[in-house]
Amino acid sequence: MAGALIRMATDPRSPAAGVGLRGSRCSGCAVTVCPAEDACPRCGGPADAAVLQGTGTLWTWTVQRYAPKSPPYRIPPDGFEPFALGYVELAEGVRVAAVLDVDDLDDIRIGMPLTVTAGDGVPRARPASPGEEGT
Amino acid sequence: MSADVLICGAGRTPFGRSEAGGRELAVAAVNAALTDAGTEWSRVRAAFGGSDNAGLADTLVARLGLTGLPFVNVKNGCATGGSALVSAVNAIRSGMADVVLAVGFDKHPRGAFDPKPEDWGLGAEYGSDGLMVTTQFFGMKIQRYMHDHGITPRTLALVAEKAYRNGGLTPEAWRRGPVSAEEILDSGMVSDPLTRYMFCSPGAGAAALVLCSPEAARTMEGTPVTLRAAAVRTRRFGSFEVFSPWIPGGPLTSVSRDASAAAFEEAGTGPGDIDVCQLQDTESGAEVMHMAECGFCEDGEQERMIASGATEIGGRLPVNTDGGCIANGEPIGASGLRQVYEIVQQLRGRAGERQVPGEPRTGFTHVYGAPGVSACTVLSR
Asked: Where are the transmembrane segments (chain B) (predicted)?
């Protein structure tokens, strides 16, 4: 996994277009978290910004079968549909909460390869295409 | 070592939906505990209590009597009752007071809790994208546990089936009708793999305890039960908690494991010595996992234990003899003290139809709550 952690010069929370997930890493503890935090949650020391590759495997999951209370939930324009969510264990070691964008809820399996991306909302994960597996 | 603390009085109200307000329920539970101890409010020298959502405990003095006693409000999520109890114990051990009240109560609106992301230090997107739902956490924790340790959905159903059966034997329980494992499995998925009937519901209720020093206990009428240990812990790094945007890799730590170990160490005993226990069962999966986290079995052993009836009232390790949270509902501030109330009844041999046979001598209680807090007690007669 050499090169998995790429230091960034920008504030870890600043919106920046680019590839990868914005996380942070404590040089003292080697604890990597995502989304980024200002301080290491283990030792309280300063955390450096890091870009994570976003590839990993599904560690656990569930399905939100009913519409969450709104607000805060923003019901999609087409109405509520059950959606999957879970934790994706990234190559860097951290397990990141993400909505799972899968075609069929019955296909979800612990251990399935996933690619996590960050956008406007919470991280989202989709099944890794064959070329992305094992990177 | 610390001096003994004795529980001389225990009281609770029925749990469920109630016309009464949370504070009214609290007053009823306090008066029941005082009556049980055969004493009066004026004899109480200090009080600790709280609710999550139903008001300030110290305002109860307006109904109980303005005796001038110190009354500390506790607000500690699901550990509110446990934290009030620990505070009461410390008040006795420190010599601050010899007769102390612990009270917990709550009254929640219908439906799931609706936490706000900003209260948890999370971005607004966790709410707008639908991740601020507590049931998701419970589903995801047991999902992984089932994968790692071979627990089946049927075992989750058997836990809930037992809860409703025991609730039917408990006059103050909310859910008192039997529900079969098949009905539980078919009740509709809420957060996979957990179905609707596997969950407890937020509700209303109150519980209270009168605790005494050994000297004060000799002046009380109630049969005392010894509180051998009471421990509260918060999570360490590496635990899996509700509303976590990320969790660390590697083996999980467990605040329930930490709190139960601390309680057993303080009591100078171990899980193998316990005759009856109360384990937080927010849903079926929680009871299964807490059996192992509190040291009562190895990971995965639950599958065989539960199928064999080991956790039934007549089994080797009766768990949640009053139906637990699943049958009683979850008034957050009251649950921890309801658990202790039930163990007190069991150790006194006064649990009626749900009495554990063989005159149990030792009991254990465990609560767990967000954001990673646990309170455990060890009791004996």
From this structure: none
Residue B2: per-residue pLDDT: 59
Helix (H, G, I), strand (E, B) or coil at B120: helix
Q: Does B205 contact chain A (CB < 8 Å)? A: no
Please say if the pLDDT value at position B254 is more than 60.
yes
- Strands in A6-7's sheet, in edge-to-edge order, are A6-7, A48-52, A21-25, A32-33
How high is the mean pLDDT of chain B?
A: 95
In sequence order, what DSSP letters do the residues of B65-97 get, joined into one string?
Answer: ------EEE---GGGHHHHHHHHHHHHHHTTS-
Asked whether the beta carbons of residue B131 and residue A42 sit closer than 8 angstroms, the reply is: no
Substitution target from A32, A37, A40, A65 for chain B, most B beta carbons within 10 A: A65
What distance in Å separates the CA atoms of residue B50 and residue B227, rounded to the nearest whole number? 20
Whether the predicted pLDDT of A7 surpasses 50? no
Q: Chain B closest CA to A55's CA: distance in Å?
A: 14
Rounded to two decimals, what is the model's pTM? 0.93
Say which amino acid occupies B298: E
* Contact yes or no for A97 and B125 at CB 8 A: no
Residue B198 pLDDT exceeds 60: yes
Q: Which of A125, A90, A129, A132 is nearest to A108 (CA)?
A: A125
Cβ of B248 and A93 within 8 Å? Answer: yes
Residue B22 pLDDT greater than 70, yes or no: yes
The beta strand positions in B133-199, using DSSP E, are: 189-191, 194-195
Per the CB < 8 A criterion, the answer to whether B264 and B229 are in contact is yes
So what's the pLDDT on residue A20?
Answer: 76
CB crowding B184-203: b at 16 or more within 10 Å, else e: bbebebbbbbbbbbbbbbbb
Residue in chain B closest to A70 (alpha carbons) equals: B128
Residue of B nearest to A97 (CA): B245
- Tell me the count of A-B CB pairs closer than 8 A: 106
Judged by a CB distance cut-off of 8 A, whether residue B127 touches chain A is yes
Chain A residue with CA closest to B128: the answer is A73
Stretch A6-35: mean pLDDT, rounded? 67
Question: What mean pLDDT do residues B57-67 have?
Answer: 95
- What would the pLDDT profile of B256-302 be if each residue is shown by its tens digit? 999 999 999 999 999 999 999 999 999 999 999 999 999 999 999 99
Task: State the Cα torsion A88-A89-A91-A92 to the nearest 10°.
Answer: 110
